Structure formats: C-alpha cells, structure tokens
Amino acid sequence: MRVGVLTGGGDCPGLNAVIRAVVRKGVEVYDFDFVGFRDGWRGPLENVTCPLGVAEVRGILPRGGTVLGSSRTNPFKVEGGVERIKQNLADNHVDALVAIGGEDTLGVATKLSDLGVNVVGVPKTIDNDLSGTDFTFGFDTAVNIAMEAIDRLHTTAESHHRVLVVEVMGRHAGWIALHAGMAGGANIVLIPEKPFDIDKVCAYVEERFKKSYAPIVVVSEGAVPVDGGDMTLQSGETDAFGHVRLGGIGDRLASEIEQRTGKEARAVVLGHVQRGGTPTAFDRWLATRFGLHAITAVAEKDFGTMVALRGKDIVRVPLIEGTGELKVVSPEEYAEAEVFFG
Amino acid sequence: MRVGVLTGGGDCPGLNAVIRAVVRKGVEVYDFDFVGFRDGWRGPLENVTCPLGVAEVRGILPRGGTVLGSSRTNPFKVEGGVERIKQNLADNHVDALVAIGGEDTLGVATKLSDLGVNVVGVPKTIDNDLSGTDFTFGFDTAVNIAMEAIDRLHTTAESHHRVLVVEVMGRHAGWIALHAGMAGGANIVLIPEKPFDIDKVCAYVEERFKKSYAPIVVVSEGAVPVDGGDMTLQSGETDAFGHVRLGGIGDRLASEIEQRTGKEARAVVLGHVQRGGTPTAFDRWLATRFGLHAITAVAEKDFGTMVALRGKDIVRVPLIEGTGELKVVSPEEYAEAEVFFG
Amino acid sequence: MRVGVLTGGGDCPGLNAVIRAVVRKGVEVYDFDFVGFRDGWRGPLENVTCPLGVAEVRGILPRGGTVLGSSRTNPFKVEGGVERIKQNLADNHVDALVAIGGEDTLGVATKLSDLGVNVVGVPKTIDNDLSGTDFTFGFDTAVNIAMEAIDRLHTTAESHHRVLVVEVMGRHAGWIALHAGMAGGANIVLIPEKPFDIDKVCAYVEERFKKSYAPIVVVSEGAVPVDGGDMTLQSGETDAFGHVRLGGIGDRLASEIEQRTGKEARAVVLGHVQRGGTPTAFDRWLATRFGLHAITAVAEKDFGTMVALRGKDIVRVPLIEGTGELKVVSPEEYAEAEVFFG
Amino acid sequence: MRVGVLTGGGDCPGLNAVIRAVVRKGVEVYDFDFVGFRDGWRGPLENVTCPLGVAEVRGILPRGGTVLGSSRTNPFKVEGGVERIKQNLADNHVDALVAIGGEDTLGVATKLSDLGVNVVGVPKTIDNDLSGTDFTFGFDTAVNIAMEAIDRLHTTAESHHRVLVVEVMGRHAGWIALHAGMAGGANIVLIPEKPFDIDKVCAYVEERFKKSYAPIVVVSEGAVPVDGGDMTLQSGETDAFGHVRLGGIGDRLASEIEQRTGKEARAVVLGHVQRGGTPTAFDRWLATRFGLHAITAVAEKDFGTMVALRGKDIVRVPLIEGTGELKVVSPEEYAEAEVFFG
C-alpha cells in the first residue's frame, strides 16, 4: 500500500513524532511505502510532494515543528479543489492518507472521507480543545513552558510587590491557563469560558497585597470581561496613530490593574514560545502512540476514523467526533481548583 | 475537624503539592485544622508532630522532597505499635489521617483502617506500579529527566560510534524505561517484566553499527537476563576485594556488551536524580488534584478509600485496591512500541 | 565584627548566592556576626532588620529573588536620611555594611562611604551595563532564558513563514539582545546603542523570505528608531481611549513589520521571566565568588571598594568605578557578530 | 581561498557553533570556499571529505555533537601519514586548515604547522584544562548539567538521610567538579589535583549527619585517594568473575562511605550526558566567537596560531601554548571555596 501523510494548521510539538511513528511502523511492520504532502492540504491540492521514508524521519522525534510543513489551505474553498486532490492522489498512486491536524484539517478530512477518499485522522491542537480525545499532544509542552515562566515570576512578584500578568494561549478554551495556573501556583486564572469582572480581579489583587503577597494573574489570550464591565479591552480598534491597537489582553489587563489599584503591574506574553521547540516526554509518548495506531487503522482499512486517547488507551472514533463541538473547560472543572484562585 | 497528614516511603516529586492542596482546601473550604506527622508512620508512632497550616504550605508547590519528611517505619513491626498510634492520634485530637505513600505506607493505612482509624490514602510511586490508578505523580518527572539524558546522549553516541547504556529506575516494573525509551528514541529497552537475552542484545548492537547507527540501550534497574544466559549479572555478591560487588545492571551491561562486541560502551546511571527536584506540570496538576479530592473524601467521611486517576477523573477506590498486585507492563503494552526497539 | 547586609534595586538571579557566601565565610572563617537590613536602603533608613546567620542562608543558593527583599529607596532624597542611617547602624552595633546592588544602590554606597560609613559593594545588574566589572551575575541567566525562547521560536517561524519578534531586557545597553541573538541564531538584533532604520529592517525581512527563511528579530526594550524614521514608536503617550499606550517596542515593531511587509509578525515579550527564578551555574559561581571576596574586603577593612570580575580574577576597585559611566555595546563588539545579523 | 575544517577528539557542545561561524564569515565576508574533512585527522589522512557551505551549517548552532564527525586518529602514528595529508590537501586545493580539537588534535596541528601546513587551531576540551585560554566551550554546558543534577539530589538527600555521590567528568583536572560543586552547593568536592583522605571524608559525612544535614559529595572521575589510604579504589583490575572491575570512583566511594559510616550512600554517574546535547548560551557565544576569529586569522594568514579567550577578548596565541602543560586547579583556586567543602 502507498500512504500519503500531511500536517495542517498551527505548529504543535509532537507533529514530527507522529510522522516518524507512522512511517517506521508502516515500513517495518506493514511494508508500506510513503509519500509526503507539503504544507497541509496544499500538498495534495497542488501536488507538492516530498520523499518520506525511514531515512527522512531519522532524528526528528525531539524536534519541534513539522518536516512536512503546514498551512491553513482549505481545498473546499478552492474551485475544483476536491477533484484536483483526488486526481493528485491517483497520480501519486496513493491508496490512503494520514491527515494530522486540528478542527479545520480534520474537517476537510471528514468531508473528503464522505466523498470516498481513504483517510485516517490524527487530532492535533495545542489548546487541547478537540472533543473526542482526552488529551492532544503539544498541550503538555505548552503547559510546562507556561508553568516554568510562572515559577520564575514568583520571586520577582514577591521581591518587588508587583502584579505579574502572564498571557497564555487559548482562544476559545482555557485549558492551558487552567493547567499552568494550577501547576504554577497562580492566584487568578481568567479563561474564555468564564468572562471576568475587572472589579473583582482588582479587589482580589488588593486583598492579596494586604496579606503582603504579590499576585500572579494567568490569562488566556481569548479571555473577555463580563458585559458591561467598564474596561476598554476591545481588540482590533484603530488608535490615535492610525494603527491597529497594539497589545493583547495581557498588556491591557496589566495596564488596567495598574491604573485601578495603583500597584505596578507587568505583562509577560509568551506567545509562540509555547508552540515551538522540543516536546515533553508525555507529548512524544502520546504523539508516537497516535502515529502507531493511525497506521494500523490504515492497515486495517478502517477509514473515516481518527485516533484518540481515552484513559490510557488509544481508540478509534469517527472523524466527525473530533470536529464536532469544541471541548471547553466546564464550570465543574474550573471550580475544582478554585480554592487557589482568588 | 482536625486532620493529620503524613508522607511515607521514597522521595517523589509532587509530595509537597499534595500536602499544599490538602491543607489549603481543608482550611479554606472546610475550616479544618491540621497537624503534620513527621517521617511517615514514625510520626504518629512516636508522636513527632509539626505545625501544618496555610503558612507552612506557602511556596512548597514547586519543591521536590516533602516538608513532612519520610521514612519506611512500619508500626505493625513494632511492639504495641498500633495502640501507640491510636493513643497519639487521640492525644493530638486527630479525627482523621491523610496518608500519602506507596505500597508499604498504604498497606499500613489499610490495616489501620480495618482497625478503626479514619484514613484516606493518596497513592505515590515514582515507578508508576501501583494498581488502582492510571498514573501516579512523580512518574512524569522521572520520565522527562531520563528522556532529557537520552536526548543528550544521541549526539555522543553518533559522533563516537559508542554504545550508551542508560540505567533508569524501576525495580519491578519497566514503566520509566518504556516511556523514556519511547520518548527518547532509544534502540533497545530492557525491563524487569521481560528477561533479556544478552546474545540478542549484542546481535542487535552489531546490526545497528552495520547500518552506521550507534545504539542507545535503556535498562530498568530491575531488568534481568533470561535463565541460562551466560552473563554474570547477579547483585550483592562479594568480590575479590571482600566488597559487595559494585556497579548495577547498567555498568554490567555496558561491560558485557563491550567485551562481546568489541564496541566501546559507556553507562549512565541517573539514580536519585530521577526522584528529586521540581515536578513537571503534569505531576503538579495530578498531585494537586489528588490532594483536593483526598480532603473532600475526609470531609465526606469516606474513610478506608484512596484517590485514583481514571482517565481524566479523580475517583475514590478502596484502599486495598492500591496495595493489591503490582501494575506491571503487559506484553501488549511492550509490543505496542516494539517496532522501535531492536 | 558585626556586619550588615542589604540588597537594592531590581531582581537578579544570584542575589541569594552572594548573601549566602558573605554569611558563610563571615561566620566560619572570620567569626563575624550579621544583621540583615530589609528592602535595600529602606532597611538601615527605617531600621527594619532581620536575623541573618548560617541557618537563614541555608538552601537559598538556587533560589531567585532575595531573602532580604529589595527597594529603590534613596536615603539622600529623604530629609535627614544619612543621619538616620548612621544612627541605626550605630544602634545595631554594625561596624560595616555589604551593599549589593546596581548603579543607584552603589551610588548611595559611594556617597555614604565618603561620609564615613564602612561599606563594601557588590555590583549587580541583569543588563550587564555596570562598568568596572567584566560581567555581573544574573546576566547569564537572562541570556539563557532568552536563548531558549529563541530556540523554540525557530521551528514556528519556519513552519508558518512568520516574522517573530522577541523583546528582551536592556533599557540602555544591548548586552542581553546581543548575546541571546548570537546564541539563538537570530537574524536581526536591535539595541539601544544603535538606532535602527525600520526601512532596512523590513527590507531584510523581505530578503529573508525570498530565500524562504523566516526571520527572528531580537530587540532590546530600549531600542529606538533613527531620527526621522516614520515609525510611531514613542512610549508613554496617551491613546484614543485615554490610556497610556500599550505595548512596548516588541509589539510595535511586529505591528509595523506586518503592515509594511504584509508578512504575519508576532511578538514575544519575556519581561520579568528573564530576571526571576534559579540562576545558571555561571551566575551562581560568580555571585558566590563576589560574596566570598566582599567579606574578605570587610575583614581587611578595605572599605569604599567593590568587588569586580576581571578575566577570571575577582579584584577590588573603588566604588566610584562601578557607578561611573554605563558600559554599553561598542560598535566593534556589535560588528563582531554582524555577519549573522541582516 | 579554499579552507578545510575538521573536528577531533571527544564530543563537546559548541563544535557545530564553531563550524557555522567559520563558514558563515568565511563565505560572506571573505568569499572563501570550504571543504569538510570527516572524523578529525582521519579526514585529510584518508581523504574523506564532505561538502561544507552555508547550506550545510544551517540550523546546526543549537545541536550537540559535530556534523563533521570526530576520531582520535593521529597521522604521526601512521606510516607516511604526514605526506598523505599534504598530498590530500593539495589534491583538494586546500590552502589552509581550521582544526578544532583538544590537546591531541592541536598537538598534531602544531607539528603539521612546523612542517609547513597552514593551520589555525580552535581549542576544545570539556574539562577546561587547556592552557592558553581562560575557558573552553562545552565546559559551561557540562557544569550546568552537573549542577542541575545536584539541585535535584538535595531534596532526596535531605528527605532520606542519605549520602549522595555524584561522579562528574575530569580525568586530570577538577574544574567541572569544582564549579558544579560551588554552583550546586555540594558539601565535599574531590578532584584529581588533591588526593583525598577517605577517613576525613567519612568523618565529615558523620559530622554533617550530626547536624542533621545529608551530604552531597561531588567527585571527579580522576580523583584518587592519598597514598596509603586503605581504600581499594584501583581501576582496571580483574575481579573474581574474570571481568574488568566494574564501577568507577563514584560507585566505589559510595560503597566505601556506606561501609565505614553505616549511612546509606548512593552514586549518580552522569557520564556522557555531560558532553552531549545542546550548548548553553555561554558556550554558543564563546564557540561562535572562536569560529569568527579563527577564520579571520586564516584571512590574515596568521597560521600556526590558535584562538583563545582572555578576559572578554578573543586573542591569538601560538599553537604550542594550547598544547603545553595542562591547566589544573591550583591550591588557591580550590581554597577559595573551601569554606563550603567539609
């Protein structure tokens, strides 16, 4: 059998570990051969391929990024896109595809599967917000990076009686903020699922200082104030200089806290540091297992499925499950650790 | 309610995170007060206590070790031990105990529970070999430390055409070796559950060199050769100098491979480095949740239980479940990644 | 002899290592005793002291921050400040002071020394911009943290064809940017000493993309555009919302590059992460040696001096040398590595 | 000009950084072209070459090992070796060589230089024991790895009242042990330059335990007991099993301390972990500067020299200086930190 592999969407530590596992087991156990498609769905759409064998995956396990490149190309938004993909797969004698990606990439995979393309999906999101799987790889790495930053900030917060605001990733789901906040011993954790009240945040900041503690605030990039909160946190507005307003929620929150409480506040914006570089052991282990099981699904011609973690087991679920509704932090999950968060 | 807390057995990153969570939630949500017992069961046996409140747990989340100290004292091996414990608990007005420990510590907890002591257990083992829970805290930290060592060894193995043997923890179970070997891209993984054949190990070493790759061998400290293997790997024997024979399985394996294959082989023995120091995010998160749920079990007077991880949920199981048979690597679990291991 | 110790100014990994070395050698070799003054010059000014002995410095070597606290209090700006300090030193029977701090703290030390107070200084600045010493502790830690961030960003820059801007510390001197940029393989390094031309920056960004490389830009927080550059990078202005303009040079540069080149650009602002947490080996070694030599200077009554690193030697220089002109990156030092920087 | 580059001797983080700097500046500033010689002096001896240009050095800055491979081949021990090297250099139109290596590699370079080969040397030793330069790259990385291990061991030593022995690299010089011991807060540091008295070591161990501290002992692999010390620490002897005696000084010391003091003692042997993997910022900075200055020496035809660090400056010294006597820890340098070491 000849198998195509592609990676789509945002960077995520562990992508290379998946690719390596797919190829190593595919070649050594199933005697498959492989073709790499470059830059997500752009590869099969525009027939951009690269060699992919045991030699190409050598040494890539610990590396961040993806040796196949990535993009957000959506063939369904391209005239005749599906037909071109089918033709290119046929021209390359590709019998099946392993598509590694998030909501968008797997959404395309789902539709192509319905249209007769043999696809197995591998779920990927650094934000950990894909349903169908307990965890996704990359998430543990992001949480550790954020936690290490928080660890370092504690001493500074204390020595200088400053508020430190750490902005972490998470547009729609607060998983990174919640886990890093718990692991780092943050004092306030603000997530997209639970709009925050700036008055309460500032009241808690002041309460902490009275006990002579300096607070650390962890905020998801997608966190928002409650309706009617008198904060000017809107993004994307044009400022007095004619530029789009700079600074994300982290900067704005620090500025707002400083103005309201009179306490110095500083922001740290980790940004893409959270999604690059070498994966943690958990992420390499999970990504490797995802890859091993995905290629077995191909061997068993169990197409239209994706691999998923359930407890300690890797299972297969219909592709549609991974691209259904977003997995967000439930009120119960947030409440579990609330004793630590103002 | 007044609650005693103790930690027993070997060091494990995350112990302080459990203690902190137990105390913070106990004080702030349930209005309990606490007494710390020093050095495992020695504390309640010999009435060695220390203050334990919100002040005492401040800043301990990222720290290795345990602020309560530890020991392997077993009160059932001490004349009148149980009575003394009961008396000391009564004298300290302790209504319930949170006992954090492994097989031995929880074994004592189980028996005391049967004898009427109010105990809730928190499972702890760096080797991840306690049944009843999917994972234990400390394990992820150990695996990451071992993986980082393997990462560093890859370049040296390649540049010098050397065999590198990494001895990791795991007396009875090969979890650390298996996970670190998968995450680090090791070429041979030897675990206690599967006696190894030194001839096959050496044959694979030579095969690797023919392909111009230098192999990395990960070996659990408890790994053993198959019966009749002509290796002299027995421990504890007295050598020609009248000393107990030095060097564990790592050193011996390196020496044996060197002699048999003529390839230079070097051992790295990580030892206690794996069980000290700051915990990973996963371990802090798991340990914190264990602590939060343990004190709730106390509040709900659900004694004789221990907390456990099942999938993403923290559940309660009877104490006896944690101290039953050891959780070892099954043949299927080992086979899953075997494509990578010679 | 009775010796007072204080730490002033911004946080810096290694402060605790200095304190520990001063106290350990002072007690064990010279049989001195010690008093800690809290929060920089506020301590002797307002007579806020704490016990300081071998017990107090135990275990602090690897910790960030300072166990003595810090502040920017300047007794020369307080009515009768100098007299109060002299009186409080006398009341505490303090024969000599070890003052650990940067330009401001040592500036005060210099003046007090001229007024007859027995002071030995230890230079401290994370920015490495104090003259008189080859390096200061804390700087190596900051550079490593920034380098690790850059390492992680490389894969993301490449996979997504994005410009990544990393803002690092350095208000007046570009040492952190220069060293981290060299160590991390950055493509553009902008420092305060050399105003940048935004047109040239953007031209280089575009040139890199033509060669299909995604650039990483490291920028000191104090970097500024050349006069007449049509960038709106001024800080501290009030924007349309009545707030002080948010976002530092990192955010603004990313925004400007994005608008001019049409390439996605993202900023990472490491901020206080660079000055908190555990020091590197170099910083612990340097800080420890500074402490050991400072207390010897006290024992030898060589007051009015500060310790400094020259080559591998710790020497003593007049206090005034450390607080003279700022040590900035010379054109030659910048040019040395310019082959790597667009 | 056409320049050959080779790396010889043991692995050392920073080798790739040197190669990259040599090539980048050589190509971009001097318009040189390059040829890589594989595996140290074996390359020019046996004419094993590889392409070496800007493309080949891309992305290698953070990587351990050497892309050129290494060996300990000595052409002066091969019949007609020198003539073959000269012939191969001529055949490859090589005008000059950059030789990166330690005592042996630079020793060969020195002799070849005397015989008319155009060579510039770059000093390399993880042990930091080459004279002529203040520091060598790789050393800072090794010290940090050892320090991080010691950091992790502190909590375990304390919680379990155990002696922990850490064996670090250093056959002839104790630099790694001394620096890591200072940075990690070790209690005993044993180096090759100062034979140790096992009685005194054990007496100090017992003294520490009386104060309820658990000691950490750092020992260079080349440390030896004083003459007449009744320890059986000889290496390389054949034991009762006919095998070369296993276990280095670390294992033996732990065993000896355990037997004599009755306190549990455990050894950690970091071995090659110290010389593999990504370099620290200091080592990347130093290695990069060495490379930049070495290629300038070539451009200026200043052959027979090697680059060296003196203070903050990179200077050139005659090759012979780097291969003269070993730079060992002087009694004064050891004594500087002795207050910390029992």
Structure characterization notes:
- The structure is a homotetramer of 342-residue chains.
- Chain A is of the alpha/beta class.
- Chain A folds into 2 domains: 2-138 and 279-322, Rossmann fold; 139-275, Rossmann fold (3-Layer(aba) Sandwich).
- Chain A is 38% helix and 17% strand.
- Chain A has helices at 15-28, 42-46, 81-91, 103-114, 139-160, 175-184, 198-210, 249-261, 281-299, 319-322, 331-336; strands spanning 2-7, 33-37, 49-52, 96-101, 119-123, 163-168, 188-190, 216-220, 265-269, 305-310, 313-318.
- The first copy, chain A, has a 7-stranded mixed beta sheet, with helices on both faces. In chain A, strands 7-8-6-9 form a 4-stranded parallel beta sheet, sandwiched between helices.
- In chain A, α1 (15-28) links the parallel β1 (2-7) and β2 (33-37).
- In chain A, α1 crosses α9 and α7 packs across α8 (249-261).
- In chain A, 62% of the residues are buried.
- Residues 233-245 of chain A have low confidence and may be disordered.
- Chains in contact: A-B, A-C, B-D, C-D.
- The interface between A and C is large, with 48 and 48 residues.
- Chains A, B, C, D: Diphosphate binds at residue 10.
- Chains A, B, C, D: Mg(2+) binds at residue 103.
- Chains A, B, C, D: Residues 2-297 form the Phosphofructokinase domain.
